[in-house]
Amino acid sequence: MPPPMRGPGGKWSGMQDMGRGDAIATSEFGGIMSRFKIIVPAAILLGGFLALSTASFGKQEYTKQTKKACVYCHVDAAKAPKDLKAPGKYFQEHKNLEGYQEKK
User: Fold this and answer.
1) pLDDT at position 70, please?
2) Taking the CA of residue 81 as centre, how many other CA atoms within 13 Å lie in the half-sphere pointing to its CB?
3) Are the beta carbons of 13 and 5 closer than 8 angstroms?
4) Nearest to 72 by CA among 84, 61, 59
5) CA distances for 88 relative to 11, 92, 103, angstroms
6) How far is CA 50 from CA 19, 22, 57, 79, 103, in A?
7) Which residue ranges make up each domain of the chain?
8) Whose CB among 52, 55, 77, 84 lies 3.0–4.6 Å from 88's, allowing a Cys bridge?
9) Whole-angstrom distance, CA of residue 39 vs CA of residue 6
10) Cβ partners under 8 Å of residue 56, min gap 6
11) Coil, strand or helix at 9
């Protein structure tokens, strides 16, 4: 691109009159970029929260209600929380352990 030249009236051709403090480069995308400054960190924070939080299938109310430890219903509560033993399957169907007879 050729350098700007002085035109009639002593003004530089190819340049707009700019006052002090005006942006050198303006763009219609300036609004989008300022939104990205908020959206991107928020998305990273939300993604990190979701990735680091663990899904909880059992609740403490269940242990209070049944007065049993997690391992009574779950095969391995930490590694495979959805793998249930017979009492866990019974509780899942009936929402309580009343009437459950443990196999001997």
Assistant:
1) 84
2) 8
3) yes
4) 84
5) 84, 6, 13
6) 48, 42, 15, 18, 40
7) 24-53, 60-94
8) 84
9) 44
10) 81
11) helix
- E strand or H helix at 87, and its extent? helix 86-94
- List, as one string, the DSSP characters of 32-49: HHHHHHHHHHHHHHHHHH
pLDDT at residue number 82: 79
Phi first, then psi: what are they for 81, rounded to 5°? -65, -20
pLDDT given at position 23: 59
Alpha-carbon distance of 100 to 104, in angstroms, equals 12
Buried b (16+ CB within 10 A) or exposed e, 51-88: eeeeeeebeeebeeebeeeeebbbeebeeebeebeebb
Strand partners, 84: 74
Are 85 and 73 in contact by the 8 Å Cβ rule? The answer is: yes
